[in-house]
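seq/struct pair 1
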Amino acid sequence: MSGSTKAMGVLTVATLVVVTAYTVALGSNGWLWFGWVVLGLVTLGVVASRGT
């Protein structure tokens, strides 16, 4: 894995932590979860494309 791929993975996990904390503190926000899912899918796509 390259440095940018690792950074994207770290960003995805950090975003998950932030969205979870927001949900616990202020209630669920569907757009935040949707954004996190999109970010996760993009990250998986980048990992898959770099793996080949």
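seq/struct pair 2
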Amino acid sequence: MPPAPPSRPSSTPSHRRPHPPTSNPVRRHHNLHLARCFPDQPQPAKPAPPNPNPLLSLLTAVPDWADAVTERRVRDPRPLYTHEQWREHRSSRRHLRHLLSSLSSRVILSLAPPVSAFTAVAAAVATYNTLVPAYALTASSLPYQLTAPALALLLVFRTEASYARFDEGRKAWIRVLAGAAELVGMVMHPAGGVAGDGTDEPAGRTALVNYILAFPVALKCHITSNSDIRKDLQGLLAEDDLNVVLTSKHRPRCIIEFISQSLQMLDFEEHRRSIMESKLSGFLEGICVCEQIIGIPVPLSYTRLTSRFLVLWHLTLPVILWSECKWIVVPATFISAASLFCIEEVGVLIEEPFPMLALDEQCKQLHDSMHDMMSVQDSVRKRLVAKTKSQQRSGRYPNNGRPGSKSEQVKID
């Protein structure tokens, strides 16, 4: 028989050639096991959402509207107070101004669903007791007298815990801003006058300053919602640096890495570089504190207990007050629900402190003050250098404890 012709190389295109078998049999067995457990099957079409219940939509219309208004007001930027605003804040006309602006308060708007619901319940109980006096819903007020201190303690502890979180977040943010300002000052005032004699890279120092100023902005966008970090960092970082930060999963830590690498690349004395790098631990601490405040609320069991206590209290309040107040239970329930739920609502709002702080204004204030400091530093340095040269040419020295002329030197001797 004639010998078989030699095999020709496959003419299959490279993109159609089969992949070589996996060298690891364990990985190949694992992939085969996954393929068996999760075969490629067409995903079933999601069923269309059922038509909403008209009654349910009507009942949730007011809470949805109040929540939408509240969330929209939460995103409003907070201003830093000026002297004029402080004078208005402590003005004797503030009570009238606050009363006239009640309908625009987000706290009061958020109270519309519960207060209106409990007032309607009070009106229903009053109507029933009036129409059917033989079977009127009444009860003794003794249980309310016994449980009123418990409700007061719940509200007090709730607001105190929320304010403690607010104060902790404010102090953490102040430490971050103070650390950034201190680090910028150390970069712009190096030991030995390095920045003034032209021996260091001015572009590198400027970029490092911008990295430091960008950190509070990135942290602000990290701990608040609906922030446009690209817009906020547009004027601080170069486009390529900004793209690296935007693709990072943790943007504040990415900027810390930019700062750390820049400190290593620039010509600083070793002990001074060590001090600067130690300042970065304050940034990391600020990140941890802010993330803990955002991620861990006041214990939910405490919040739920306060909410349930308030709801049950006001559901039964018309029954308790009917014997003594009659139809006055309707305005009494309204006033009680509005006041107590308002205290609880304030505690819930300040529990998340960062939307309540003027973070945007503080970042802008830090940026403007640092750039003003750099401009003042340049002008002061130029003036001192010129003054020193003129004094050296005239043979005089500044009045800093040394003799100003040869005659004064003779008098001292």
